[in-house]
Amino acid sequence: MGQVLAVLRNLLGNGTPTMQISTVDSEILNRRRLSSTGQTTLKSYSWSNRLNTINPDDYKHIGLESRTIVHQPGSIKGHQFIIERCRNCNIFLFDWTDSITILDCTGCAIFVGPCKGSTFVRNCDDCTILVLCQQFRTRDCRRISVHLCCSTKPIIENTVAAKFACLQVSYGELEGQMAQAGLSPFNNNWTNVHDFTPNNGEGGTSHNFSLITDELATAKVGLNDPEVIGETDLLASFDPSISLVPFTTGNGPASDPGEDCLVIVFATEKAKSSQLARSFVSAVRAGQPAMILLSTMEITMLPHDLRRILHMSSGINSPSGSSQVALHYHGVLAGKVLGTLSSKEEYRSAVYVSPTVHQAHTEIEACWNLAEMKMN
């Protein structure tokens, strides 16, 4: 008998056996304790309230056909979302999410508001997907069009005939939702697509995807049964002139007499760098429409970074710890044109412009290398 007890002790970890109590049993025991003490209310816990109010079915669409569904701001609040086996649907998620999975869909138009984590698209055909996210990945997809604002390099795998464009969108709650999801509209790597299964042509370029550099591409997106829903119903605009995400092209024209120029926008005591950067981009767009914005980036450069990259002793009186927005422009006499704009009163104390073309090339490379290092 002693040997049997020893074996049992070893199996139980030499501890006292414990009994698992279900939620229902636990509530019964609590009520008994309350009745014995004379209390009349149960103690409430945050996790029990959450379990009672969250219905997973509210955050998924499965097996729908020819439907138009709009989730208004505040209806998702950072939950995971699943869209699966839908056909010829319009699905709009105008709220921020934790992650998105889109599976086995055909002929759908899907808008995904700011996604804190990853957006994964698998086995989808002939779909148009508009999304703002931290990570974007596809697998086993055919003929999809992706309008994207993505903080990291988008990845495709076993995907053919994909098209990528710079997402252009704005609506009232978008900026706040992006902040909740930890995204910046200036961190957009939509052109830096990585193909895990490339079908390379000349120069090593993958034939599995192409880039659309038309700023009106998002505005031209077609909906299924467009008369069912319009922009007024969506409370959103895809007009590039007011888009929260700036339009970027990734690369300048192959043969162009223009020059590169780096602009860095700093925060002030009165405004964030992102606010001033949007104002600066709008001013360039209105006054110098031929100037091309190749890429943008929001980053926090410390004083030693500024000294090393820009040879600056300070951040133009920028508040400590604030981020900066870097703008990579290309155009004829870009340095002179942008330098003149930066001298205006509203930008004079907040905007740096590379003084020479040579210095611009060096600073652009250093800035983007720093950003990549911070991400890794």
Properties at a glance:
2 domains, 376 residues, lipoprotein, Pectate Lyase C-like, disordered N terminus, globular, single chain, alpha/beta, four-stranded antiparallel sheet
In terms of structural class, how would the helical and strand content be classed?
A: alpha/beta
Oligomer: single chain
* Cα shape: globular
Strand content: 15-25%
- If you average the pLDDT, what whole number results? 84
Uncertain parts = 1-36
The percent range for helix content is: 25-40%
Tell me the CATH architecture of the largest domain. 3 Solenoid
For the termini, the CA-CA separation is 60 Å
Indicate the CATH topology of the largest domain. Answer: Pectate Lyase C-like
Biggest beta-sheet profile: 12 strands, parallel
SSE arrangement, N to C: HHHEEEEEEEEEEHEEHEHEHEHEH
Helical segment tally? 9
Structural domains: how many: 2
The tally of strands reads 16
What is the C-alpha radius of gyration, as a whole number of Å? 26 Å
CATH class category label of the largest domain: Mainly Beta
Binding site for GTP: 117-118, 134-137
Protein name: Protein XRP2
Subcellular location: Cell membrane
Keywords: Cell membrane, GTP-binding, GTPase activation, Lipoprotein, Membrane, Myristate, Nucleotide-binding, Palmitate
